[in-house]
Amino acid sequence: MTPSPVTDLIGRSRRLGSDPRNTNFAGGNTSAKGALEDPVTREDVEVMWVKGSGGDLGTLTESGLAVLRLDRLRSLVDVFPGEEAEDDMVAALDYCLHGHGGAAPSIDTSMHGLIEMAHVDHLHPDSGIAFATAIDGPELTQRCFGDSVIWVPWRRPGFVLGMELSRIQRENPQAIGCILGGHGITAWGADSTECEANSLRIIRTAEEYISENGHREPFGQILPGYEPLDLVDRHAIAARLAPVLRGMASHDRRMVGHYVDSEVVLDFLAREKHPDLARLGTSCPDHFLRTKVRPLVFDLPATSPVDKMITRLQDLHAEYRTEYTEYYQRWAGADSPPMRGADPAIILIPGIGMFSFGANKQTARVAGEFFVNAINVMRGAEAVSRYQPIPEHEKFRIEYWQLEEAKLQRQPKPKMHASRVAVVTGAASGIGKAIAEKLVEDGAAVVIADVDLKAAQSVATDLGGADIAVALHVDVSDEESVRKMVRGACVAFGGVDLVVNNAGLSLSRPLLETSVDDWNRQHDVMARGSCRVSRECTPAMIAQGLGGDIIYVASKHSVFAGPSNIAYSAAKADQAHQVRLLAVELGEHGIRVNGVAPDGVVQGSGIFAGGWGANRAAVYGIDQTDLGKFYAERTILKREVVPDNVAEVVVAITGESFSRTTGLIVPVDSGVAAAFQR
């Protein structure tokens, strides 16, 4: 049976964490104290349940809690040699754990354990951090809260901060919590209800104070020429800029992008104070660990010609890399971890919006969310005071903290297609769907591009939603539809790395029954459609400077002269030759072009379900239900080809194992001698 303190803790955590006004994603932590039986002595011992490292309050479960014996944790105070041993205390927490399993204790665990209250919340609300980063934070806190909330000057999270908060709580029995300078808030209570109420009281009181007393335009006046462009124009420019920006953000390691053009972002970037405030950067450790210490800020009006914008962005990127390298060199010591990359995580384009970057879509999105938090913090601080984040050297101590480095080193090795963006046409069913699924399994972000948008949306949802896969409508026979799809892919993920030309259809008819319309329709979808998709995706791939892959799902019929199949086979032969032609043309950009040639993929096939299967069965004089078996029996290996077989080959030939291969068409047909590549 789950102990009641745990039930109360999880309920409180989820309520607090589900409201972004209270804390950021995966930010903050909560705790509860109670008694458990020691299985050895059969005696009750006092323990603490606390949210573990890396978890999210809004989705917290019991498995996300660390459980520690309080007698052992608190005894660390007696052996603590001083601040120089701060990091050792985190390792010591492992020896305070009660039982097996559960989450790893976070750096804030000491804070929760040393405060002598049954329930403790540590949160990162925008309003609280606005007070925490105001230049007159102590006076502001006293003016707003009196002696019910205590100001605590900035101190790096850890054991010393925990001891300090313990002392403050003991010496101030009237207090309900603290404002942690540069960081956030901590509140406590005798029970879970009181603790939650105290957290919300601090947050909402700060919100009300800012609203009632703050300046109406804390970011200053509108800068002429920096106003938001209309929706259509800014999205068009965002789509053009996104691959360029992604290439910049991926100079040291490949990143996935996220784009935001919310009113909060656009208004901030339109105001006169935004360059100076952005240069000050974020303050809360959770924020700048995701956003870096400051963003790259574009400094021309959005109405500038796009080519001019790109040239200026290239200059600004070079300056940013120099400045970040100097920042690292300025503060790095002999034991500092190596520099992790000098590229920006946040790029701000006035009039257009914010582009954020991370190792995957979720990380990129969260980085953007954190910078929106930072904008809200700046607005609040500037409304009632002046924004002043923690000093640069303190940011460095957090960013390149050995404990943070250890956390990064514990992360699993990235999958082969991690940080890559794939566009798969015809991905709502059959081979395309299987390819999309395999690419997602291997770490890619995938655009499910299909003429059937509803089916594509269902596939994207099943794959995990917008952080993993997005559905976009495309009719590959329509040039503007293809362009719109590519623009959507660039806005969704920052660009394109891998293109799978899979969209297709077929009409199984002999020559004398094949009309011009039949011929044109099949060629327009497969031959010309594939060319359109390749042509429209290639500029984005070149702009990124990251190389890439283009895959054509051709067919055994591209070389095999099957009966009553002239239009389909000719279109597939066209696709097969496009592989060779584009391999030669695009190689200088690091773009590899290869293909697969399946045969007789019946399971899950939209083409077969749409009448092709019945027609082919009639040609061979068999029942349609036996078609898969028929195809298998005529192969060398006597094995049916299913969509997953094709997908596995696509994943393989777009990986590092085939990094020196281009212009290849791989048969996936269980062996059809008449279709051997010659």
Kindly describe this structure:
The longest helix has 29 residues, at about 515-545. About 45% of the residues lie in helices and about 15% in strands. The protein has a 7-stranded mixed sheet, with helices on both faces. A 7-stranded parallel sheet has the order 14-13-12-15-16-17-18, sandwiched between helices. A 4-stranded mixed sheet has the order 8-11-10-9, with helices on both faces. The protein is an alpha/beta fold. Strand 5 (about 150), helix 7 (about 160-170) and strand 6 (about 175-180) form a beta-alpha-beta unit. The protein folds into 3 domains: about 5-215, Class II aldolase/adducin N-terminal domain (L-fuculose-1-phosphate Aldolase, 3-Layer(aba) Sandwich); about 230-410, Class II aldolase/adducin N-terminal domain (L-fuculose-1-phosphate Aldolase); about 420-600 and about 640-670, NAD(P)-binding Rossmann-like Domain (Rossmann fold). Helix 17 (about 430-440) crosses helix 24. The protein is elongated. The chain contains 24 helices and 18 strands.
